[in-house]
Amino acid sequence: MADREQWISRRGFILATIGSAVGIGNIWRFSYVAGENGGAAFLLIYIFCVALIGLPLVIAELAMGRRGQGDAVAAFTIGGRGWPWVGWMCVGGAAIILSYYTVIAGWALKYFAGAATGSLWTAAGEGFGGYFRKFIANLGEPVAWQAVILGATMFVVAGGVARGIELFNRWVMPLLALLLVGLAVYALTLPNSMGGVRFLFAPDWAAFARPQVWAAAMGQAFFSLGVGMAIFVTYGSYMPREFSLPVSALAVVVGDTLFAIVAGLAIFPGVFAFGIDPASGPELAFITLPQVFLRMPGGIIAGIVFFFLLSAAALTSMVSLLEVPVSMAMHRLGMRRWPATAMFGVIIFIIGVPSAMSFGALSHIRFNGGGILDTIDAAVSNILLPLGGILIALFAGWRLGRAEVLKEADMEDGALGRVWLWLVRIVAPAAVLLILLRKLLGA
Q1: What is the CATH number for 284?
Q2: Which of 48, 64, 254, 363 is deepest in the core (most CB within 10 A)?
């Protein structure tokens, strides 16, 4: 399309794409999943999965998007009959993910407001567990915070690629990086904080023999990077030809991984300094960490910074998730950006309301023991994202011609292109298929 929007600068594109990957998955989810799976062993396997599977698939998605110069469906259209449905699946998947992601992001925003105003810290008397459970069981408050942060997401996306998404990330991502590093440095000054460092970097080698650790690391790699949701396909469609695709993809993956590692350094030293169990599960951010902050010298300021980071990181990911269906509506339905953003914002909000109420009015609805939000989260991270990754790998590696896909990936010459193509064709789909089968069979 001649009037297709484009990123203005390489730096802006990289920051926006890192922002799409960096989110709740890097801070809240990475921390508790690493805590539940042994820390350092999980981290090493996670980095391995990102390098051998995540990075090749990010390159593949960006190449598909730049080639198609359209929405996620258009990227698969040239594959012939049967392939466009994969694009539709990715668009629908992004909308479903965003529907419950907004709920958790709303929790983070609520906690930031509570930390900043002081109402969070006054809850220490009744216990942070009671405070959190009372909040999420409330009939309307989680829905209200969901609406607020989704509204902010819609505002950014409605501004367009250059003046909305890119401009937002050019300011927010460096700020997040500085605040996260500052929080990590502060956490490392706490007494007994080295226990957290050892937990994160000194592996228990026996953990490498546990299949559940590998499965958790693979799921986290997909959830954190956002592979399989067509985010990179969509962002790649706005990518000028002069941008080096492999360099850009590497910068995105390294940036996303570093955010997760530094987040671990910001969280686990404090957890160990005050004798908290690192395997606290999903409650780590919303119940355990407020206790830690309250016991730290200057911890209230650290708590405000942490929950601002969690909220802002969630917002950068939500922007990219919303852009996937909005881009489809603009390209396929001929809609203008503002109406497309408003339409999908309302649809996603409505779809997300049951997740927001899944700990309160709808808590009686259970699926295999899990509530609505937990069930959607498990289905997304364990099935939908791996399935999307497999199909994208098969399409880029086998359906597109070898010469064509190497050209689109800016790797026409040399061994690098051959290694990448081998990873996309064989290693990535095989590895993800093993994890997917394990989840489906409940092994």
Answers
A1: 1.10.4160
A2: 64
Of 53-57, 316-320, 406-410, 416-420, which one has max mean pLDDT? 316-320
Rg for the chain, CA atoms, rounded: 21
Query: For 400-406, what is the mean pLDDT?
Result: 86
Which residue in 67, 91, 73 sits closest to 401, CA to CA? 67
Number of domains in the chain: 1
For residue 76, being part of any structural domain is answered with yes
Residue 370 dihedral angles phi and psi, to the nearest 5°: -110, 150
Give percent above pLDDT 90 in the chain.
Answer: 56
Locus of tokens 């392939």: 83
Contact partners, residue 17, CB within 8 Å, separation at least 6 = 232, 235, 248, 252
Grouping H, G, I as helix, E, B as strand and the rest as coil, residue 301 is helix
Q: pLDDT at position 3, please?
A: 66
Please report whether residue 38 resides in a domain: yes
pTM across the whole model: 0.92
Residue 212 covered by a domain = yes
Q: Which domain holds residue 94?
A: 10-441
Whole-number pLDDT of residue 80 = 66
Inter-residue contact 404 to 369 (CB < 8 Å):
no
**Phi, psi angles (nearest 5°) of residue 8:** -80, -40
Confidence of residue 2 (pLDDT cuts 50, 70, 90): very low
What is the helix, strand, coil percentage profile of the chain, to 5?
80, 0, 20
For the cut 50, the answer to whether the pLDDT of residue 225 exceeds it is: yes
CB 34 within 8 A of CB 191: no
**Strand partners of residue 370:** 367
Q: Give just the sign of the alpha carbon dihedral 162, 164, 170, 173.
A: negative
Contact partners, residue 177, CB within 8 Å, separation at least 6: 259
Asked if residue 5 is part of any domain, the answer here is no
